[in-house]
Every structure is written in structure tokens, then in C-alpha cells.
Design a protein that fits this description.
Mean pLDDT: 75
Number of strands: 17
CATH topology of the largest domain: Rossmann fold
Largest sheet: 7 strands, mixed
CATH superfamily of the largest domain: P-loop containing nucleotide triphosphate hydrolases
Radius of gyration: 33 Å
Shape: elongated
CATH class of the largest domain: Alpha Beta
Distance between the termini: 103 Å
CATH architecture of the largest domain: 3-Layer(aba) Sandwich
Structural class: alpha/beta
Number of domains: 3
Strand content: 15-25%
Low-confidence stretches: 244-265, 388-396
């Protein structure tokens, strides 16, 4: 009970608030009792949920100690969650907080009792790494980092990780980074490059459900509704839901990860049996998978040798009912040597194939039969033949050959 998760990114415009309120709403739909704390002076979460409604008690009053946290709670029927709203006065509170003893843990102490009344508490942080955000981190067990797949977002992750390190070293508080949520996703080459760099440079898991850029998200804000309520068929709404389905605490949802200790979704078992014994030195077998978002990854398969064959296998965890494209690739000295034809598979099923790379290599290396094409006549020959035709001298094929011989002799 009382797990606290902060949604944090010091860079603005990354759909942090959108992600926080929609994930919180999805948890509520699954029967969890959820509290959302709006810790952003811009009050974006408060406005998205309640519109222009004003509140007598806010998180500002809770931090200053004027009211207890439970007295500032307001219920949102549309989102199905409790909310502690924010206000513009919060923008100057860090000055007064800085003079107080234990200033980094003011929010933690304020939420200490009320958090036990909820399954999960979601904190929507301000787009900064100031004292308010530090308070959110100290109060939290886990954080989630929403980012847009762009260059500057990658730079911001380093600052967040450095802040977490400083908190651990200076205050002895360890915070678990549950994952990165890709927001405002567009299927562009540069976007895929940023996501690949993200996976290559950081050990933080990336949630499998990218939140696509959609006008329905902004329209839902104006209607003060969750995206999946405003537009149930919208891909953005379904992705918010899948990001946390069945979990009070966000679990790893890394795209197509192998042998996970925290599986999410449906398992896809893959097996390919090599019929020509084992691989040659320097050769390795990979599974190339393209997921439903067009993201492509390669995985080295585990090898199990028997007397009759060599089997290569892996277990992938995918989103429920997700369909992928796959092919097996034989790689030698770092270069692709041979591959099977691309096929499709569905999460929750199994892939089982038999493959004989040696035979396929022989077939690809066999010399191809040369095509014989009639030799085209020379331009001078065509002209002479046309001249003969015009004079009525060309009749049978034998006549043509005789005339051709004579013309050759004349030349």
C-alpha cells in the first residue's frame, strides 16, 4: 500500500502531465485507489482534469503546513481519482522552503499518513530540478521519465540521473527508475535513431507502448476527460492503458526483451532447428524482429545441441495480441550471410522452423544459367535489308541468308 511514483522531466513539452493523468486514470479503472498530486506551479494537471475551477486548499497549503493533505483532496468523477490540486502560488514556495529544517523531505512528511489510504500515489512534477522536484523524489519509491524522441530529451536524462545519484550520496535515499515512456511518437527515421541511441546508451528500460502524437490528446484536455474515455478507439488512449495494465507498480516493458525477470504481456516462444549440425566458427544465428511500431531489433539466440540437430531458441515478451514480423539471420564475421524469408507471428503463440543454411548457401552460390538472346543485327545490316525489301528481292528465309552472304562479301 502507498507506493509513490513521480513522473519527472525537467524539459517541458514532453507530455509529462498528459502521461501522468492518463496513467493514473487507467489504474483507477483497474480498481486501484489512486491519488494524483499536482506539484507543478503551472497547474497543468489540475486544469486538464477540472478546467478553470478554483480550490480553497491546494498542495501549496499542504507544503506550508496550513492544512493536512487529506483536507486538500478533491475527487474527479471523470478520471476516477483523487487529486490534490495546484496553484500559481507554488511558483514562489521554494524560497520559503529553503530556510526550513529538513527542506528536502517536507512533501514526504506531508504525505506520510495519507499515502496509506491509497494503492498508489502519482506525483506530476514541475519541469525543473529544483527543490520542489527534489521533494517529490525524496517522497517517491519509483520514477517514470516521459520523453519526446528528440536530441535534447536525451541530454536531459543525464541531468535526472545525476540528480538521483546526488540524492543517494547526500541523503541516502535510493530511487528506482522504472522506465522511460516515449511520447509524441512519430514514425520517422530520425525518431527511430533517437530511440536506438536511448537503448544503446542507457540501461533504463523503455516502455514498449510509445504514445503516438495525436490531436485527440489535446481535444481530451479541452473536454477534461481521459484520452481513452474521449476517444476509445484512439491509439494514444490504448497505449496509455497498456503502459500500466495489470500493475500497481510499473514493471519493465522493454520492447521485445528476452528472458525478462519481470514479464509483461504475452510470451512468444521461438525455435529454429538447424539441419546441418552446428554453426561454423565465426558464425552466429540471430532473430530479427520488427514490432507493431516498425521498430526493428536483432537478438542472438541460445543454442541447444542434440545428437540429431542443433536448436536455437528464445522467449520474447510482447504486448498482448501484438503482431510482429520476423526472420532468422545467419551472420558470419559481423556480416549477414543468409536469412529466411520474413514471416509474421502473434504474441502468445510459438515459432518453430527447420532451416538448412548449408543447402541454401549452395543454392545461392550455384552458377546461374546464362540466358541466350538473339544477337541484334547491325544498323548497317538493317538498312540494307530494308533496301532489299523495298525492291521486292527478299522472299524466303533462304533468300535472306543468300543476300546476307553477298552483302558480307561486298563489305
Amino acid at each position: 500500500m502507498g507506493s509513490i511514483v513521480s513522473f519527472i522531466n525537467q524539459k517541458g513539452g514532453v507530455a509529462k502531465t498528459t502521461t501522468a493523468i492518463n496513467v493514473a486514470s487507467q489504474w483507477a479503472k483497474e480498481g486501484k485507489k489512486v491519488l494524483l498530486v499536482d506539484l507543478d506551479p503551472q497547474s497543468s494537471a489540475t486544469r486538464a482534469i477540472f478546467g478553470d475551477e478554483d480550490f480553497e486548499d491546494t498542495i501549496y497549503d499542504v507544503i506550508t503546513g496550513e492544512v493536512q493533505a487529506q483536507d486538500a483532496v478533491v475527487f474527479s468523477e471523470a478520471f476516477g481519482i483523487d487529486v490534490i490540486p495546484s496553484e500559481i502560488m507554488l511558483s514562489g514556495i521554494e524560497i520559503s522552503m529553503s530556510t526550513k529544517f529538513g527542506r528536502e523531505s517536507i512533501l514526504k512528511r506531508a504525505l506520510a499518513e495519507i499515502k496509506e489510504e491509497y494503492d498508489i500515489v502519482v506525483i506530476d512534477c514541475s519541469p525543473s530540478l529544483g527543490l520542489l522536484t527534489v521533494n517529490a523524489l525524496i517522497a517517491s519509491k519509483d520514477i517514470v521519465i516521459p520523453i519526446c524522441p528528440e536530441y535534447f530529451s536525451l541530454m536531459g536524462i543525464d541531468l535526472i540521473l545525476e540528480t538521483l545519484k546526488s540524492i543517494k550520496n547526500g541523503l541516502g535515499h535510493t530511487i528506482n527508475v522504472r522506465g522511460i515512456i516515449i511520447s509524441k511518437y512519430r514514425n520517422r527515421r530520425i525518431v527511430e535513431k533517437v530511440i536506438q541511441d536511448l537503448r544503446a546508451n542507457y540501461t533504463i528500460p523503455v516502455f514498449n507502448n510509445f504514445i503516438p502524437e495525436s490531436i485527440a490528446v489535446e481535444e481530451a484536455h479541452h473536454k477534461h476527460l481521459p484520452v481513452n474515455e474521449f476517444s476509445p478507439k484512439n491509439s494514444g488512449g490504448s497505449c496509455f492503458g497498456k503502459s500500466c495494465t495489470g500493475n500497481v507498480e510499473l514493471k519493465k516493458h522493454n520492447p521485445l526483451f528476452l528472458d525478462s525477470t519481470q514479464p509483461v504481456g504475452d510470451k512468444l516462444i521461438t525455435n529454429v532447428e538447424l539441419l546441418d549440425a552446428s554453426l561454423a566458427p565465426g558464425e552466429s544465428l540471430y532473430l530479427e524482429v520488427t514490432d507493431s511500431f516498425g521498430v526493428q531489433q536483432k537478438f542472438a539466440l541460445k543454442t541447444v545441441a542434440t545428437k540429431k540437430s542443433v536448436r536455437h531458441s528464445a522467449e520474447l515478451w510482447l504486448n498482448q495480441n501484438e503482431q510482429i514480423k520476423y526472420r532468422f539471420i545467419l551472420i558470419s564475421a559481423g556480416a549477414e550471410l543468409l536469412s529466411t524469408a520474413e514471416k509474421t507471428a502473434l504474441a502468445g503463440g510459438a515459432i518453430s522452423e527447420k532451416w538448412d543454411p548449408a543447402t541454401a548457401l549452395k543454392a545461392s552460390a550455384a552458377p546461374k544459367a546464362k540466358k541466350t538472346t538473339p544477337k541484334a543485327p547491325k544498323s548497317s545490316e538493317i538498312k540494307k535489308t530494308a533496301s532489299i525489301k523495298s525492291q521486292g528481292l527478299l522472299g524466303t528465309a533462304q533468300d535472306y541468308q543468300q543476300m546476307k552472304f553477298l552483302l558480307g562479301e561486298l563489305e
